[in-house]
């Protein structure tokens, strides 16, 4: 299948391109970026481009939209551009997007294959309601992705409440998103919109489909988001109240969590490992960046606490979106 | 009054010395350290010594214990040495200590003057029970100090539960406590014993005296402690369930918190400021390191969340202990 | 004397304001910034403003130029705005500027009081040639300032050649000048225009006045400039070939260097200390930021090598400029 | 061929093990470490061990020496242990060592295959003089390795003098070699013994064999070594005086440098790339860590300046040593 990557020169776009190198199902046909980069070979703009794409000439967004000529699209454009572009493309082509533009639409899933694969069914609702050939599937915000993968195995114990404090890497802010002088030797407990996203996206992802739309999970999620001087890898300190279960039960649930192992998705990795002290620099590349590391599990009363860390650009963005596309192909939606 | 600093060459000891420079009530008579440093001028061992103490000859612990000759002692020795040394000294002299050796003794207060000044009364129990002329007053672990200063103004709203995730500075681990390779570009969610200390010391400090001993506060405190690549300043993300009160009430309580303003303690500073985005590099030196910065206050249901940051070596160690001594003098215990 | 600070909200402007707090000769009358900040109290724009200036209302550049009403001006505006503004102001008022706009003019000195105080005489040439009441005095680029203070004591040994590699702090790039993602866990051996400045400004500063203009020093200066993950403090590795002198001679020259000690300038500090291992975090605040630390001196053949570190915003910018103004007052040019 | 790695759990040892995974010529037979680790599976001690060696039981040094049973040895033990161990082993087996113990012996080469492959001939002198079956081949100190690879292509232009300032990564100090508090937000211009090593090892490596021993290169090398807050990758600012050649000539020499391309050594990579702004975080993994990046080349008079960066644990340690062994096999010394 021929695919295009939109916003291919940004941090998330580059990660898409890297992960698509040598992909058995998807062949990168077009790398799409702004006018400024259009016409130049990809390897000239992105110094550490995979060799496979170094010579591929970048296409401008305008030119691409006139004649996409691909079977599916990965979108890493900024949210401001994405709403219109995605809707236009979805008339004909499936769109897998990291942008938040459509995440909160009633008929658009925020998909994490290991957590809510059934939400993919919403694309039928989209197609019917909007009269599209294609569809839009979003992946969550980066810290939400890491959090929900760790919460998924806990659903069986009855999640009642979640408090989470994040320690997020600088690459989550984009290449120029954060001045060195701001975060050097510092922790910045403010990331615009992030806490709202974690609180609401998590509840949508962990919700259930009912009558063609999603009913958010009924428990409270409360988040404090901070930025720390780490390159890649979001770390999260989680307090979760569970209705039942012991530390041993929960640890066993973490360790055995492998919901899609049998599907044979090319990019799939065991989504979660349990380790004594999860740390972003040591664990962010586990499972080629798709595995989150959980550890420090303890229990006090009905509240369990643990720490989870995962790669924000892979698990939390491009890698998750790629898994979404693989799942859609496997389940016959494409 | 003549004072001695024990462990004067370590991170906390140096902070004691710096804060005692030019103190109106206390004159540093002896700087005590290990045999290795004994006999050398303080300024030779501690390159950035205040000029006042640069020429003062360091005394070995053994020599000091034979003939203390001071009116009170500040102790920054490691816990392993402290139990015995403190008990011997307290027979004659008041000891204000950063070591944890006696923190959990029934008749020893963990004192934060702005939070539990009444606990100082326990020294009478000590004197009576142990037959001492002096006494022992401890200050809490560094992250506990920052946390309890922020919780103190919330007591009036009925604290029901506290979840706290800390992001602690490297200077909290001592000069050689943490290899650069461990924490560089990383978050380490493990600090030995720290979570237990936060959970138990907080409840003791916020508890009440009853029948000559302290009844811990009745609410649960649950902590996840992490180390981040920051030099000084512990930052804490706090979720606290309160029985009553609005965001405005709580913010007003934070802003007006100034419990000892009228006592005229020489080192006293307003213990808490409210600011939009508290950050260790920007706020750790507020109030000469004794003021914590609180911000990001929000409410969801009965759970309030906020962030607090404070200087671990000052508010969380030497500065707090110095305030303890000033309070004891002011209230006539010395 | 009434003074104004232009560009008072930037990194260098803030440093001017901080250093002028409580100054015995200069009273800050106007804080000048862009339209965006104009009309707001300084303390609202600059969170860590000194209390003295917190309430002072910021004046826009346009408004200021219409009626300066001050006796001298400190300029921290960007170079692009500075040429025209400085020339207009200098018609009436002395201007001490950190901008590079006029540094390379034949009749404008790049002044470092401890190094080339005699160059101040050029302002007479300016006044005569340009018909000004005021004048323009520049201070050098930040890394040049640190370097020339360390080279000044070596002139007596006959400097023949200088090779210098700089390791510059992120605050030298301005608040938003450097993305966190660029310099995190990295060294960036490129700072636009920096090497040219070091090479040429050093030779002008160390040159001699002849016939009303400066003859640059006759030796080669060759620089490699890099950016490192340090907040403040530029560190420089220097190889200097000297015609004569031993290690002892040179060290003695470093240690005794105190050229203006008798002038009684209010901001003057001993400009150089010799220490075993100069380090930016440990030494950048020595002498309130005006003292550079030199160390690691060794000799091999006729080449001496040493390391020097100094505060880029103080010694290398606002502090140096303030000293320039004090010298001009002391020597009767104002 | 069966190989052993001595000191397999340290920073350099782990790098040897990682590079030997799946090696076509060498099969890791024994992983040797201290008594403390002996008997445990390698993957238990080294969390991120390659899967291939995870289950391999660590052998104690004492046990190994009794019966090595391998065809060659890679040594990553500390220098203090190495002299005796290496000499004992070399009686029977070739030893490729990162330790400095024998580097300065007259009949032991400091080998960088791309720079001085002919020095390998010294092992015949060793065998003859010492009566050994095996031999000892050392690789240089990490910063010397990076420097000499960049100097090798310049030999044809007549090197007359080298001044180099290094900015070295923290992993060069070993896991616990550097406290976080020392290097955080800092540059430390002191690394014990490093400057002497750079100056003397470079001249030996770039020297010529004459009468069975090495005559050091006749030019002066002068180094200033600093530590910077970077994980991996040593960066070096180089000033080199050349007898002849233009910038274009030198750049062409850098770009075409590929001395062993035809030998077919399994680990060989192009040893040098030329790029605009070489940076440790961006370039340290080029050529699987064996390629150094050179850039910023400029000329002033007869002095050329440039910057080079390379991976200290690979190019500067284990990777270089592995190449040494491959060369020795290829040229028939083993």
Automatic annotation (TrEMBL), chains A, B, C, D:
Under the GO molecular function aspect, what terms does this record hold? aspartate-semialdehyde dehydrogenase activity; NAD binding; NADP binding; protein dimerization activity
Instruction: Tell me yes or no: is NADP among this UniProt entry's keywords.
Output: yes
The protein's matches in Pfam families, at most eight in alphabetical order, are given as:
Semialdhyde_dh (PF01118), Semialdhyde_dhC (PF02774)
Question: Superkingdom of the source?
Answer: Archaea
List each copy of the Semialdehyde dehydrogenase NAD-binding domain by range. Answer: 2-123
Alphabetical list of InterPro entries matching this protein = ASADH-related, Asp_semi-ald_DH_pep-lack, NAD(P)-bd_dom_sf, Semialdehyde_DH_NAD-bd, Semialdhyde_DH_dimer_dom
Q: Name one GO biological process term.
A: threonine biosynthetic process
The answer to whether keyword Cytoplasm applies is no
* Entry keyword set: NADP, Oxidoreductase
Q: EC number(s) of the enzyme?
A: 1.2.1.11
List, from the UniProt record, the residues annotated as the active site of this protein.
142, 234
* SMART domains (UniProt xref): Semialdhyde_dh
Matching SUPFAM superfamilies, A to Z?
Glyceraldehyde-3-phosphate dehydrogenase-like, C-terminal domain (SSF55347), NAD(P)-binding Rossmann-fold domains (SSF51735)
Family matches, as PANTHER family: ASPARTATE-SEMIALDEHYDE DEHYDROGENASE
The entry assigns this protein to a family as follows: Belongs to the aspartate-semialdehyde dehydrogenase family.
Q: Which protein is depicted? A: Aspartate-semialdehyde dehydrogenase
Q: Which organism is it from?
A: Thermococcus eurythermalis
